[in-house]
Automatic annotation (TrEMBL):
Recorded GO CC terms: membrane raft; plasma membrane
TM segment ranges: 6-23, 30-50, 62-81, 93-110, 130-154, 170-192, 198-218, 225-247, 267-288
Database matches in InterPro entries: GAF-like_dom_sf (IPR029016), HATPase_C_sf (IPR036890), HATPase_dom (IPR003594), His_kinase_dom (IPR005467), HisK_dim/P_dom (IPR003661), HisK_dim/P_sf (IPR036097), HisKA_7TM (IPR031621), Sig_transdc_His_kin-like_C (IPR004358)
Protein name stated in the entry: histidine kinase
GO molecular function: ATP binding; histidine phosphotransfer kinase activity; phosphorelay sensor kinase activity
KW Kinase (keyword) present: yes
Ranges where the Histidine kinase domain occurs: 494-716
Primary location: membrane
Assigned EC number: 2.7.13.3
Record localization: Cell membrane; Membrane raft
SUPFAM superfamilies linked to this entry: ATPase domain of HSP90 chaperone/DNA topoisomerase II/histidine kinase (SSF55874), GAF domain-like (SSF55781), Homodimeric domain of signal transducing histidine kinase (SSF47384)
Length: 742
């Protein structure tokens, strides 16, 4: 019974492991060959069991030949399996494959004839098979394919590193130990020593190979079915405990309580036990899943949670170094990788390499990095174990790299993530690979955003430096302009003072020449002296205007405000200054006298303002025209308007009126009988602003006259209190008041 139980256990283990591997890798040559090998081992256990039973010699001979038939393909299939490792595909040529299959068939055919075993002799219960002349062919099959298998594994072991080498060592040791023992006990002892006592141990030796492969599956993910194994073990344990619990319950109740095996109490007991099992099934299932995970899957992580954490990292920062370091650190920590690199390539900057978890950063050669990035850009992912021997695999081997994950966005390669082996010595599972494939495009987008951010930062730095340089240049230029402006003001002030003295003398002498009765002038001479007088007056006016502008812009003009009666001021200007000119052009003045409060202003400066306004109106109003003075007040300000019936101003020219040296190239200036400096209105605007007032002009258009309006604060206690809040700033600007709207 023990021999039967061992045989059944071996058969069950082999078939289960073979089916799991096949279902996990249905298109893999390694998975298919491993399934075939597991079936051969199971059949070997079955045929070996029957060959050792107490049966007639003819029947024993049949089962011995069956053992030889089954094992005839065993070593050849093992050789083909090792040839596929770790690429999961056969590398031998068709001719060699045909020769292998032909030799298998030859051995199997011979094993069914008298050429391998002629007969069976039974002496005193001992079974002695008699070998035939073709037994050396069988020996060549067994020993030859076993040697080819070991040589193949040895060569691959020399060229492998890391996890690949670990898995090969387990495979080499399991195969060597299993088949040396099997050949010794089942072939050498039988053929040469005529001993069959140890044949029963053959299937047990097969468990050594199965055990090492299973350990490689569980510990080092050979063929990547560890999760299936873990879940199978957890369900097996659950079913075993449930069965033991149920049977024990029935045994205790039937033996010690009711002492009657067939009573209604047993039915009730069975129902209660079934309910207990049903209610506790999920609890025990979770417990055993956790238990088996801790054994088979102790480094397990949740891909969803890891992807979520990586997504938060990629969304939380645009800093390329911080992003790459955090991303790589999370990967290395959660998947338990020995270390890794992120290689970032950018056209405008050198290749950047960020390392995490490596004891000593590898100094990659430029050509190696270029090759890795170029190769990565052509693949979805590069796995060391799946590569054939090539330059890229040599680079990965020398630098202990297991995974290359390309960073590609819209066909543009931006680098790659280079990962070393797992700290546990295991290979990357399909779950790991799928997670990395999902991560690749998302990481590429994040890296691209980081590169864009780096470009923006570099641009901002360059822009800041250029702005700083330009600001320094502007500051120097402004300083020079201020110096030049001061020199200009000084020159204008000095020149004006120096010019006014001779101009005043010229005007005085010209006036005396015209008005002294004791000197008679000819008609032409009187005409010339008159022109000299007029031109001198113009020059004096120009000098005065330039002096006023210089004082205003340098902040040296002095304002002495006091209450002023506007109506009296206007009448005084009309009567004393411009009466003669208005008579010459037959221009009439009209003052619309109203109850108008006094304004708070400097009378001399205000007189100068209205002299400029009235002078402009006289200059541009044709003969027979009129000038009207009107007043309006709201209790806080008084608006004085000077309206003429002159040529008017276009809307385009209104905005130019109060600019320095403004001269309008229109019928407005063409209608003037005498030229001007272009400074009168500019001075008037600044003087009005210094007196906390406003000035503006309006016209309905050419030929419809022009209105100049001056607004000044009323000389009341309340208004004066508000005016005290304001102070005169340098250059004649008034703090707290809006600029004059023209």
């Amino acid at each position: 019974m023990l021999f039967l139980a061992v045989t059944l256990f071996v058969v069950l283990c082999n078939i289960s492991l073979g089916l799991i591997t096949l279902f996990k890798n249905p298109k893999s040559a390694s998975g298919i060959l491993f399934f075939i090998l597991s079936i051969i081992l199971a059949l070997w256990a079955i045929t070996n069991y029957f060959s050792l039973q107490d049966l007639p010699p003819e029947t024993i001979l049949f089962w011995i030949r069956a053992v030889m038939f089954v094992t005839g393909a065993m070593f050849a299939v093992l050789y083909l399996l090792t040839d596929t490792f770790p690429k999961n595909s056969l590398s031998i040529g068709r001719i060699r494959l045909v020769l292998v299959i032909g030799f298998i068939l030859l051995t199997q055919i011979l094993s069914t004839t008298d050429l391998v075993f002629q007969r069976v002799e039974v002496n005193n219960g001992a079974v002695n098979p008699i070998p035939g002349p073709a037994i050396p062919i069988v020996a060549v099959n067994f020993v030859g394919f076993l040697l080819l298998t070991l040589i193949t594994l040895y060569k691959k072991n020399r060229s492998s590193i890391g996890l690949e080498r670990i898995r090969l060592k387990y495979l080499i040791f399991g195969i060597t130990l299993t088949f040396i023992l099997a050949i010794t006990t089942n072939f050498i002892f039988v053929v040469f020593l005529k001993l069959t006592s140890f044949v029963a141990l053959g299937p047990l030796f097969a468990l050594i190979l199965v055990g090492f492969i299973a350990y490689a599956i569980v510990k080092h993910r050979f063929l990547d079915i560890r999760l299936v194994v873990a879940r199978s073990v957890s369900y097996f344990l659950l079913m075993l405990i449930a069965g033991v619990f149920y049977a024990s319950g029935l045994f205790v109740v039937g033996t010690f309580i009711t002492k009657q095996p067939n009573t209604s109490t047993n039915l009730i007991t069975s129902t209660i036990l079934a309910l207990i099992i049903a209610l506790s099934f999920q609890t025990f299932l979770r417990f055993f899943e956790k238990l088996t995970d801790s054994i088979f899957y102790k480094d397990h992580y949740s891909p969803q949670l890891l992807l979520s954490a990586l997504g938060r990292i990629m969304a939380s920062t645009l800093n390329l170094n911080e992003l790459s370091t955090k991303l790589l650190k999370e990967l290395v920590t959660q998947i338990k990788i020995s270390g890794g690199y992120i290689v970032i390539k950018h056209n405008l900057s050198p290749i950047k390499i960020i390392a995490v978890g490596v004891e000593k950063q590898v100094q990659f050669k430029e050509e190696e990095i270029q090759l890795l990035i170029r190769q990565a850009g052509e693949e979805n992912i590069i796995i060391f174990e799946e590569l054939s021997e090539s330059g890229i695999k040599t680079i990965m081997r020398e630098n202990n790299l297991s995974i290359i994950l390309p960073l590609v966005m819209e066909g543009e390669s931006m680098g790659a993530i280079l990962l070393g082996g797992k700290s546990s010595g295991e290979i990357y599972s399909e779950e790991d690979i799928n997670l990395l494939k999902i991560l690749g495009p998302e990481a590429a987008v994040a890296i691209r955003n980081g590169l864009s951010y780096e470009e923006i930062k570099r641009f901002n730095i360059r822009l800041s430096e250029e702005i700083k340089s330009a600001t320094v240049d502007l500051q120097e230029a402004n300083s020079r302009l201020k110096t030049i402006d001061k020199l200009k003001d000084d020159f204008v002030s000095i020149a004006s003072h120096e010019l006014r003295t001779p101009m005043t003398a010229i005007r005085s002498y010209a006036w005396m020449a015209l008005h002294r009765s004791d000197v008679l002038l000819s008609q032409n001479l009187e005409k010339y002296v008159t022109r000299i007088l007029i031109s001198t007056e113009r020059l004096i006016n120009l000098v005065n205007d330039m002096l006023n502008v210089s004082r205003i812009e340098s902040g040296k003009i002095e304002i002495k405000p006091e209450p002023v009666d506007l109506i009296l001021l206007i009448k005084d200007i009309i009567d004393e200054v411009y009466f003669s000119k208005s008579e010459e052009k037959k221009i009439s003045f009209m003052v619309l006298e109203k109850q108008t409060p006094k304004v708070f202003a400097d009378p001399e400066k205000l007189r100068q303002v209205f002299l400029n306004l009235v002078g402009n109106s006289l200059k541009f109003t044709p003969n027979g025209g009129r000038i009207i003075f009107d007043f309006f007040t709201d209790g806080r300000v008084v608006e004085t308007s000077v309206t003429d019936s002159g040529v008017g101003i276009s809307k385009e020219d209104l905005s130019k009126l109060f600019n320095k040296f403004s001269r309008l190239d229109s019928s407005y200036t063409a209608a003037a009988t005498s030229g001007g400096t272009g400074l009168g209105l500019y001075i008037s605007k600044n003087l009005v602003q210094l007196m906390h007032g406003k000035i503006w002009a309006s016209s309905e258009g050419l030929g419809k006259g022009t209105t100049f309006t001056v607004s000044l604060p009323v000389a009341s206690a309340e208004v004066l209190k508000d005016i005290e809040k304001y102070s005169v700033a340098p250059k004649g600007e008034v703090k707290g008041l809006e600029p004059v709207a023209i």
